[in-house]
Amino acid sequence: MTKATGATMRRIQAGNALSAFGLGFTVPYLYVYVAQVRELGASTAGAVLAVFALAALVVLPFTGRVIDRRGPLPVLGVAALLASGGSLTMGLAGGVATVVMSAALLGAGTAVMQPALATMIVWCSTPSTRTRAFATQFFLQNLGLGVGGLIGGQIVDESRPGSFTLLFSIEAAMFVVLAAVAATVRMPRAPSIPGAMPEHTEAGARGGLRVLLGHRAMVQLCVLGFVLFFACYGQFESGLPAYGTEAGGIEPATLGYALAANTAVIVLAQFLVLRFVERRRRSHVIAGVGLVWAVAWLIAGYAGLGHGGPAMAAAAFIATYALFGLGEAMLSPTVAPLVADLAPEAMVGQYNSAFALVKQLALAVGPAVGGPMGATLHAPYIVTFVLFSLGISVLALRLGRNLTAVQDRPSLANASRIVRRHRPEQDRARAGVRPGRGPAASGRHRATAHTGGCPGSP
Fold this sequence. Notes:
This protein has a two-stranded antiparallel sheet. The longest helix has 29 residues, at 42-70. The model is unreliable at 190-205 and 417-458 (pLDDT under 50). The chain is built from 21 helices and two strands. Helix 12 (239-247) runs parallel beside helix 14. The radius of gyration is 25 Å and the shape is globular. With 458 residues, it is mainly alpha-helical.
């Protein structure tokens, strides 16, 4: 990675942290704000959350093609300003129509940011550096969400609507700063994807969805991604809390500790896990995540039995979320970079957007299925998601069969590059020694694997 590329990557990661900080600032309090502070009722609050998710599903199918044709920078800037407008109007909204419109703007803007930022990371990385770049992105996302939620919690006061207006105004300002950061970024040409710049992409992007659906490995990865997000993230805010409170008698405060444990494991373990992951096959790492999450669901099942008392149930529930965090830390350097490595040069944005769409679908279906099951069908709920977790392992191993060696283990990209050492015959000729004479006459040309340096170096 060159000095210029490194500087660009740092700005991209700073923008990623800002967007996460802004979301963490307000999203946890959106329901309370609409239902109680603005006194619009629980049904309106539910509709606002639904619109927030649906807006993402509406815009993501079109986002990738625009990114590939126009580049991620203008898309990110427009998305950030759109989200800023949605956040500001949400803080000032007093009626149903206004809060719904604000939720649509905020949901659409934040959804478009994901593939735009991911494509920027791809353009500024190589297969060998991409794993660490996406791990850093995930680390900063969780750090931003955690810090934003913590600070936001100190500002909000249900008895003072003005505190929520301040909260949404600060979030709007963060998105404006993100747009400003995007405006200062100058995207370098990444040697790993020489045709990925906008001027080269239009011809290659015409295939669109047909090309993507004809790519067997990408289709398998999308199916795997849906199961991943459905079995984990889709249960965080509905199924697992419902199961914990109904079956295990978990106190609401314990849910906060469990989410804090999840974030803490990600933040503390991300780069330790990265060292383990970088030299291993991505398909095997994802299969390992399935096993870790299966154990997590079994521990959650134990928490619901109630045999060890409230304290033991609470500890088991917190351990469940912590294990989910460990699995997430293993996924961040594997799944997102794999999407990028599977994408054709002209379709990086479309592949990132397609995978983001799969994620949003899973996050929409997950709570709808998990919430009622977790609240009423306790044993079937645990069994179902243990099986889903084991299914992740099976799907990951099957995906591995359709990946190239470098796609599955990107560390091989450096090891496969060959450089030439000196030729003894040429050295001797320059010194005036005739071939076939002297102790080095039998020297032969040798080639060795080059494991360091910049792409394209001799």
